[in-house]
Design goal:
Blueprint: E1 10-15, H1 18-29, E2 33-37, E3 40-45, E4 49-55, E5 66-71, H2 74-87, E6 99-101, E7 107-112, H3 116-119, H4 124-130, H5 137-143
Parallel strand pairs: 1-4, 5-7
Antiparallel strand pairs: 2-3, 3-4, 6-7
Amino acid sequence: MAVQVFGCNHVVIEVTDAKKAVKFYEDVFGLKMLRGGEGAAFCKLGEHQFMAIFEVETLQPDRAKHFGLMVRDGEQIKEVRQKLRKKYKLKLHPDFRCDFRDPWGNRIQVGDLSDESLVWLLPYQEVQKAGVTFVSSQRKGKRR
């Protein structure tokens, strides 16, 4: 029998201060903490995934490793970008809509549900709950 992967269960990031990291991710993305303590925290990502935040003494940011988060739409990406730049003074990668390194050097890319090329990865029920609809490319052309 062939193995069938249903998705990603969790991602892990390293930080020097787990409590500050939880506050950052709660503020920027509205993530809810599942549990935590003694240098570790676990935040809910969507319906079936979580982000583990582990405290380490020495950070070793990587050049290319990263993960992506999906938000509802372009307005939410705009809100995230604004908060990252103005409140946290973080730089955004110029080649992407919303690609940044958090205060601990973890690289994150943010996409949204209107990107029809990515939304198929989500369970259809979640897409329906979010109320996402797509306009065919023929109709898009007629609006111009």
